[in-house]
């Protein structure tokens, strides 16, 4: 019987090597694309975090600084806390150079449980504590209050049994039951180093010390203007505060050829001080 041999085709070594080289090139290209996309994503994520930090920081500052002086706080100036004394509604370069401390009634803490009449030096409030049982008023760091946002007084004593607060002076206005009662706070903003990171700090001067508000904030600048937008350093003449905040990314970008490799953003805003120069 004759054996018929069939010629079978296959891959030669050269063809196999060419295929391997092409595959390696494709894989290398895909890997390079993946690495580039990963770097782009990381950079974008850092930029987004930086922008969120700086916006959160400046938004809170704008809200609170705009309310400087609210509550007719000039009636109790200067105000003294365990951390120091503040003579004005706006205290420039306090507690440190480049910082700002404002005095204001910002958050409602309680209400009058009974009406307060002109000439009375006592008021009864609905509560002396917050939802966690912490004291809202005392004769230390929480001793200044504003009633209805129109007059301010210093607390001389508190009767916890009747929730009655004795004031340092008589009421100048009639206040119906339900009138809000505010704590007068000194709020300080400055940039300080926390564990080697420049951080925007906020201090309420209630005994807890400065608290971080935004990380990687490199610089904070205040410019003070009067009603005609002329520069002034007289706290009584200031009507506009220009705030400039500069932040940077947490890590360097090795592909950024400019400067030190950090990406930066700066936000500036003009804040009109609504309560300066007003009388009740």
Order of helices and strands: HEEEEEEEEEEEEEE
Q: How much β-strand is present in the residues?
A: 25-35%
Count of the domains: 1
Radius of gyration: 31 Å
Which structural class do you get from the secondary structure elements? alpha+beta
State the end-to-end distance: 124 Å
Global outline = elongated
The tally of strands reads 14
Count of separate DSSP helical elements: 1
Report what the structure shows:
The chain has one helix at residues 13-66; strands at 79-81, 84-86, 90-92, 100-111, 122-124, 144-147, 151-159, 164-167, 180-194, 197-203, 211-215, 217-225, 240-248, 264-272. It has 280 residues and is α+β, with helices and mostly antiparallel strands. The strands form three sheets. Strands 3, 4, 5, 6, 7, 8, 9, 10 and 11 form a nine-stranded antiparallel beta sheet that branches. A three-stranded antiparallel beta sheet has the order 12-13-14, with helices on one face. A hairpin with a 3-residue loop joins strand 6 (144-147) and strand 7 (151-159).
Would you spell out the secondary-structure blueprint of this structure?
Blueprint: H1 13-66, E1 79-81, E2 84-86, E3 90-92, E4 100-111, E5 122-124, E6 144-147, E7 151-159, E8 164-167, E9 180-194, E10 197-203, E11 211-215, E12 217-225, E13 240-248, E14 264-272
Short description:
This protein is of the alpha+beta class and 280 residues long.
List keywords for this structure.
single chain, 280 residues, alpha+beta, nine-stranded antiparallel β-sheet, three-stranded antiparallel β-sheet
């Amino acid at each position: 019987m004759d054996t018929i041999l069939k010629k079978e085709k296959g891959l030669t070594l050269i063809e196999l090597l060419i295929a391997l080289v092409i595959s390696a090139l494709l894989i290398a290209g895909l890997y390079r694309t993946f690495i580039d996309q990963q770097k782009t994503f990381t950079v974008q994520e850092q930029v987004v975090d930086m922008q969120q930090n700086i916006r959160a920081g400046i938004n809170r500052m704008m809200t609170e600084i705009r309310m400087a002086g609210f509550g007719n706080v000039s009636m109790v100036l200067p105000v003294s806390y365990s951390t120091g004394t503040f003579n004005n509604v706006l205290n420039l370069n306090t507690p440190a150079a480049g910082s700002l401390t404002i005095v204001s009634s910002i958050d409602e803490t309680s209400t009058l449980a009974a009406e307060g009449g002109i000439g009375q030096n006592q008021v009864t409030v609905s509560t002396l504590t917050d939802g966690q049982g912490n004291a809202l008023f005392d004769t230390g760091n929480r001793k200044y209050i504003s009633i209805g946002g129109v007059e301010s007084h210093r607390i001389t004593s508190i009767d916890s049994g009747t929730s009655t607060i004795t004031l340092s002076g008589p009421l100048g206005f009639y206040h119906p039951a339900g009138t809000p009662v505010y704590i007068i706070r000194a709020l300080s903003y400055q940039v300080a180093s926390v564990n080697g990171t420049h951080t925007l700090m906020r201090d309420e001067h209630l005994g807890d010390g400065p608290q971080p508000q935004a990380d990687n904030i490199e610089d904070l600048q205040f410019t003070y203007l009067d009603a005609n937008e002329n520069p002034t350093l007289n706290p009584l003449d200031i009507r506009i505060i220009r705030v400039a905040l500069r932040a940077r990314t947490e890590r360097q970008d090795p592909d950024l050829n400019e400067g030190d490799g950090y990406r930066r953003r700066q936000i500036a805003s003009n804040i009109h001080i609504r309560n300066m120069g007003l009388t009740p």
